[in-house]
TrEMBL record:
<keyword id="KW-0812">Transmembrane</keyword>
<keyword id="KW-1003">Cell membrane</keyword>
<dbReference type="Pfam" id="PF07690">
    <property type="entry name" value="MFS_1"/>
</dbReference>
<dbReference type="InterPro" id="IPR011701">
    <property type="entry name" value="MFS"/>
</dbReference>
<keyword id="KW-1133">Transmembrane helix</keyword>
<feature type="transmembrane region" description="Helical">
    <location>
        <begin position="210"/>
        <end position="230"/>
    </location>
</feature>
<feature type="transmembrane region" description="Helical">
    <location>
        <begin position="21"/>
        <end position="47"/>
    </location>
</feature>
<dbReference type="InterPro" id="IPR005829">
    <property type="entry name" value="Sugar_transporter_CS"/>
</dbReference>
<keyword id="KW-0813">Transport</keyword>
<feature type="transmembrane region" description="Helical">
    <location>
        <begin position="344"/>
        <end position="362"/>
    </location>
</feature>
<feature type="transmembrane region" description="Helical">
    <location>
        <begin position="120"/>
        <end position="140"/>
    </location>
</feature>
<dbReference type="InterPro" id="IPR020846">
    <property type="entry name" value="MFS_dom"/>
</dbReference>
<feature type="domain" description="Major facilitator superfamily (MFS) profile">
    <location>
        <begin position="24"/>
        <end position="472"/>
    </location>
</feature>
<feature type="transmembrane region" description="Helical">
    <location>
        <begin position="178"/>
        <end position="198"/>
    </location>
</feature>
<feature type="transmembrane region" description="Helical">
    <location>
        <begin position="368"/>
        <end position="387"/>
    </location>
</feature>
<keyword id="KW-0472">Membrane</keyword>
<feature type="transmembrane region" description="Helical">
    <location>
        <begin position="242"/>
        <end position="260"/>
    </location>
</feature>
């Protein structure tokens, strides 16, 4: 029997959503919202930061890249740490570090200190993101209950990313420091509520020690990969430094795989990646986020540099996509229950391909309602379908003691995909931009980048298609085996 103040136990699908359960989900959603908010909000503030702190363009880049480096580089370690040390403990400690780093970021008067605070925030997010996702997957039973929770959770991430653009436009008008300080009180409030509501999680029992060599190799290889990709456009993709860095990453990953295969308690159990559904989820996450980040980068440049729109005007142009995602948050789970993840992911990628392709119609004097809005609505619908479905597909069928590991792996795919494809899109646009270009020439240089973005989304669609055949085969087996209990049959059919 539990006391009124004890954390909620893992509910069964039949349990009604209590206020305490909603509160638990709200705390986790707040952390994910802040992670996404922080990624998008800082971009609009960069010119003001550079002006006040007298920073060069290359230094300003590291205010963004520092966060990505810490986030993308340590996600694998963060996910496994949550499994070994306890998800609740890791989540709350990392959230506290995030709040302190946010406060420091808004108070410093030095470029290097600001970059350091951003790196620490990215590092802490690398622990809160997989810990938070694994708390959901171990608190909400697999099936309709978890699908609904994950749809709300991932929607908060998409909403945070969209709202970050709008909020940064408003806050930067007063001071760029407000964009850095805003996450601090929200994170502190989530931390205090989380201390009361988050379910206590046991550390993994009977684990075979800590995979220190794997942790060092995995973290170092991800840090170097993200660093190399971020620096490649500046250093040159064919430069000796870039090529040697990629070679070093390949060597470290090869050694990492060798170590993991022999480790009694690996950082990543490679057997998880033998599942076709898991592979499709990881590759789909890379294509999904990589294409969207590249698209947003180009559209922001187009609207502000070519059309002369203000930061707030640009943010409002993206708002329909974010609003569509927010409105659909409570509905996606039931759609997944009915149609399965593979169909929704395929449909979403198809919508993305069409949305990106339609944006190729842009000109120096576009009509928003006729040219830009259709793409925003299609991409918003795609985000509402794809992102929750990828999270559900990646975590379904995974044992509780490995949920943190899989969550870290999925978030790593998202961040690495975003870093790689953004760098590729930037390189393509730069290669097609002539010196002293006219506005029309600049616009023409954006089109190849948009074509690359479209093909990245198309690749995501092609990766998903084999899963549709697998889903149909599973459903046929379930129908044929009449001895399978109905509830279990539904689980098999949906575990795609």
């Amino acid at each position: 029997m539990t006391s009124p103040l004890s954390p909620p136990a893992a509910p069964s699908p039949a349990v009604r959503w209590t206020p305490r359960l909603w509160g638990t989900l709200l705390v986790l959603c707040a952390a994910m919202f802040l992670d996404a908010l922080d990624v998008s909000m800082v971009g609009v503030a960069l010119p003001s930061i550079g002006s006040e702190l007298d920073l060069s363009t290359s230094t300003l880049q590291w205010i963004v890249s520092g966060y990505i480096l810490g986030y993308g580089g340590l996600l694998l370690l963060g996910g496994r740490t949550a499994d070994l040390l306890g998800r609740r403990q890791v989540f709350l400690v990392a959230l506290g570090v995030f709040a302190v780093a946010s406060l420091l970021g808004g108070l410093v008067d030095s470029g290097p200190l600001l970059i350091a605070s951003r790196f620490i925030k990215g590092l802490s997010a690398a622990f809160t993101a997989p810990a938070g996702l694994s708390i959901i997957t171990t608190t909400f039973a697999e099936g309709p209950l978890r699908n609904r929770a994950l749809s709300i959770y991932t929607t908060c991430a998409a909403t945070g990313f969209s709202m970050g653009l709008v909020l940064s436009g408003l806050l930067t008008e007063a001071s760029w420091r407000l964009t850095m300080l805003l996450p601090a009180p929200i994170a502190l409030l989530a931390l205090l509520v989380g201390l009361k509501l988050l379910p206590r999680s046991e550390r993994e029992k009977d684990h075979n020690g800590y995979d220190i060599p794997g942790a060092v190799l995995g973290t170092a290889s991800m840090l170097l990969l993200v660093f190399t990709v971020v620096q490649a456009p500046e250093a040159g993709w064919a430069s000796a430094r870039t090529l040697l860095s990629f070679l070093a990453v390949a060597v470290m990953l090869t050694v990492f795989v060798f170590v993991e295969r022999r480790s009694a308690g690996p950082l990543i159990r490679l057997g998880v990646l033998r599942s076709g559904n898991q592979i499709r989820a990881q590759l789909g996450a890379m294509a999904f986020f990589g294409s969207y980040v590249g698209f947003q980068f180009l559209v922001t440049l187009y609207m502000q540099s070519l059309l002369g729109w203000s930061a707030l005007h640009t943010a409002l142009a993206f708002l329909p996509a974010g609003a569509l995602v927010a409105v659909s948050s409570t509905k996606v789970g039931s759609i997944v229950d009915r149609f399965g993840t593979q169909r929704l992911i395929a449909t979403g990628f198809a919508l993305m391909v069409v949305g990106y392709a339609l944006f190729l119609r842009i000109s120096l004097d576009p009509g928003y309602a006729a040219v830009i809005l259709p793409s925003m609505l299609l991409i918003g619908a795609a985000c509402a379908l794809v992102f929750p479905s990828l999270n559900i597909q990646a975590t379904n069928g995974v044992d509780d003691h490995e949920q943190g590991m899989v969550s870290g792996l999925l978030n790593t795919s998202v961040q690495v995909g975003g870093a790689i494809f953004l760098a590729v899109v930037t390189a393509v646009v730069t290669a097609h931009t002539p010196a002293h270009a006219t506005p029309q020439a600049v616009l023409d240089s954006y089109r190849p980048g948009l074509v690359v973005v479209t093909f990245i989304a198309l690749a995501g669609l092609l990766i998903t298609l084999p899963g549709l055949r697998t889903q149909r085969a599973q459903q046929s087996i379930v129908v044929a085996k009449s001895t399978v209990p109905e509830a279990e049959a539904e689980r098999v059919a949906l575990r795609d």
